[in-house]
Amino acid sequence: MKKALIFSDSHGRLDNLLEVLKRQRDFEAVFHMGDIMEDADRLRRATPYPVYLVRGNCDYDGRLPVQIVTEFGGKRIGLCHGHRYLNYSGIDGLRYWALEQGVDIAMFGHTHVPYLDRSARPILLNPGSISRPRQEKKIPTYTVMKIRDDGEVDFEMCEFSSMPPLS
After folding, report:
1. By the 8 A CB rule, do 134 and 112 touch?
2. Which of 12, 34, 97, 148 has an alpha carbon 20 to 30 Å from 61's alpha carbon atom?
């Protein structure tokens, strides 16, 4: 099984994200959907595992790619911030982008609201915001993705405040 931690929209406030990295010790990769501000290098130094990171609409680091397509756990995964593909009528632009990329899972951010759609392919996932949530409860969120050996993918949408204490 392969496990990854998925974040978005930390907006220069990495404390919650770094705390998740300390508590979730058995992961093998970190995915961040942008709006990390100047903290990209700090995030990469915080873990020995691969960090897949894209540029958001509030990121001005030209070294960050606008989108990434990569393989993890036998799945083809596409990452983008989402601001170029989302509009007020929904996520169709994002789904079209994901289909063009030929991905199994499309991850995005921008809205600061957690979202998971497994009803069609590709799977669409937004982990919400680890620092500046906008959903009703305003609780910081992230996602744990587990890709099982049989190829099935499990997602756990996590609230930061409900994390168990360190053991």
Report:
1. yes
2. 97
